[in-house]
Structures are given as C-alpha cells and as structure tokens.
C-alpha cells in the first residue's frame, strides 16, 4: 500500500485538481480527491471548494471513519472514499471526476446497471490487464444524497474478481482509484476516454457525423 506524508499529499492533490479542471472534469465545485497518509489517516479535499483552484489549506485530514481531524468540513462524499480504502487495502489514492460524457452516458441509458467495455486497447491501462481481447463492465449505480446507499449498492459489485477500479454514479460522475495517485490518474483518464469513445461509436452507428 502506498502512503504519503500530509505535505506531499497536499501538493499532489492541488496539482491533480488543476489537471482535472483543465480536462473539463471538475466544473464549479464538482469532484473530490484523497490520498492515504503514512500515519493511517487520509488526506481529502475540503467540501465546496473549486477543485481547479485549490490551495494546500483546502486539503484536510480525516480518520478512517471519515471524521474530520482538523475542524474543517470534508467532502460531502468522504464516505465513498473511505469505502474504497476499507475494501481495497492496496488503494492509495481516490479520484472523482464530473465529465459531461460520463454523466451523459449514465443518463442516456437509465436502466443500465453497467457499461460493457470490450476489445479496446485502452483496457490495458487497468492494473492486471495485458490484452485488448477481453471485456470488462464499468458498474453504474443510481445517484443518492445518502452515501451509505451508494456504498451498499456498489460494495458487492466491486469485490467481483473482474471488477475494474472504477464505477459510475448515474447523473453524477465517475470514481476511480489506484495504488498511488499516478495510477488513479491513469484509471480516471482511461475510463473517461473509454466513455467518450463509446459515445462517439454510438453517434457514428446512429448516423451522426464526427
Ligand atoms: C456541484 S458538485 C455537487 C457535489 C459533488 O458532487 C461533488 O463532487 C463535490 O462535493 P464536495 O463536497 O466534495 O465539494
Ligand atoms: Zn460528486
């Protein structure tokens, strides 16, 4: 399991917020990011901040129950980050993006509980996948303001042997994680790219021009 110091986590999370905002995946105050710290706590973004304009003071500490350790208000979605750290001891960083493509796909197919990603070279970005010649399902869960409801719906599906380190919340956004921040960034970037490619393919099949 990768852990980092609080100063390193602060620098890394500020930088990742700028990167995600530059991609258009952190509009307004959307998104939240976290890293596992070397003292057993977790660094996470303060709630309600613009994630493309974070200062180091906008990254705070919570304990493994998600309780604030420094009096600041953690992300409204802290419980989803803690669920990933709880279920995946090797997870060192969690990212949450809000792209129009991911939200659009999840809303366009309101009955879908997952999206099949098959025969994509980009699948090789996910840890443990070495070929395009397979299929994996990106889980989709309905949105809720109660994080425990989302966690209860997702937790069993994430423990599946072939589960990707990512899932989509309908009408809301994408969660992805990795052993460290570099891996979490690759997971989010690859998953957002795969969603965009799938949407482009749907458009071509339906006759729209590029
Ligand atoms: C305008 S985004 C609504 C809240 C949300 O989905 C999000 O990702 C940001 O919430 P936070 O409390 O982490 O700032
Ligand atoms: Zn969100």
TrEMBL record:
<keyword id="KW-0486">Methionine biosynthesis</keyword>
<dbReference type="InterPro" id="IPR001303">
    <property type="entry name" value="Aldolase_II/adducin_N"/>
</dbReference>
<feature type="binding site">
    <location>
        <position position="98"/>
    </location>
    <ligand>
        <name>Zn(2+)</name>
    </ligand>
</feature>
<keyword id="KW-0456">Lyase</keyword>
<dbReference type="GO" id="GO:0046570">
    <property type="term" value="F:methylthioribulose 1-phosphate dehydratase activity"/>
</dbReference>
<feature type="domain" description="Class II aldolase/adducin N-terminal">
    <location>
        <begin position="11"/>
        <end position="199"/>
    </location>
</feature>
<dbReference type="Pfam" id="PF00596">
    <property type="entry name" value="Aldolase_II"/>
</dbReference>
<dbReference type="InterPro" id="IPR017714">
    <property type="entry name" value="MethylthioRu-1-P_deHdtase_MtnB"/>
</dbReference>
<feature type="binding site">
    <location>
        <position position="96"/>
    </location>
    <ligand>
        <name>Zn(2+)</name>
    </ligand>
</feature>
<protein>
    <recommendedName>
        <fullName>Methylthioribulose-1-phosphate dehydratase</fullName>
        <ecNumber>4.2.1.109</ecNumber>
    </recommendedName>
</protein>
<keyword id="KW-0479">Metal-binding</keyword>
<comment type="similarity">
    <text>Belongs to the aldolase class II family. MtnB subfamily.</text>
</comment>
<keyword id="KW-0862">Zinc</keyword>
<keyword id="KW-0028">Amino-acid biosynthesis</keyword>
<dbReference type="InterPro" id="IPR036409">
    <property type="entry name" value="Aldolase_II/adducin_N_sf"/>
</dbReference>
<comment type="pathway">
    <text>Amino-acid biosynthesis; L-methionine biosynthesis via salvage pathway; L-methionine from S-methyl-5-thio-alpha-D-ribose 1-phosphate: step 2/6.</text>
</comment>
<comment type="function">
    <text>Catalyzes the dehydration of methylthioribulose-1-phosphate (MTRu-1-P) into 2,3-diketo-5-methylthiopentyl-1-phosphate (DK-MTP-1-P).</text>
</comment>
<dbReference type="InterPro" id="IPR050197">
    <property type="entry name" value="Aldolase_class_II_sugar_metab"/>
</dbReference>
